[in-house]
Design brief:
alpha+beta; 3-stranded mixed sheet
Amino acid sequence: MSDTKLSRRTFLRYLLGTGAVAAAGGVGVGLAPAAQTALARTDAPKARYALIIDTTKCVGCGACVHACNIRNNLPEGKSYVHIVPKDDRGRQWFLPVQCQHCADAPCARVCPTRATYRHESGVVLINEKLCVGCKYCEVACPYQARTFDEERGVVDKCWLCLDWVSEGKDPACVQSCVLGARIFGRLDDPNSEVAQLVASGKAKPLHPEFGTHPAVLHYIIEGE
């Protein structure tokens, strides 16, 4: 049996072994031992960049969603960013979600062709030539950040506009946010705004209990 024909039985056995099924079930699900072990790790590789989303400033306008659509020439209605409306005891707010560029990315671990990989910058990328469209990564991602492109046969995701970033520019979603709810910069520069927000503990990873060690995305959430 070739790697690309990995059976669903084998795949599910793998997920159970890594605790990814518990993570995909969302908050409130008891943590698998593997996830607890991952939480205890302190040696997770660091990312070069950080994208902080300040939910106290986000109004859910969708500008980041549309900017991502245009930047990546996606079909109408498709984007690598999705916004989840939240309601906490009458307080309504919005949670933009996209690839968290995890240091221990389950999407990369389950990829039978190694099409998904972690770039030296910490950004999780896809080698489209290797992707066979099996969608295992889509199932494994606890943030539901992967989307299948039927035309190209690729399970795609946010790539942080890395070509722009390497030129010193901001990703499209950051450029489109006129309210300043998205802050981007060098995490390896201790004097940068993002590095200081992360170091202060004000900006935190989303759902650290998943044990995937989100490396690029961090969030400022009221009350947390």
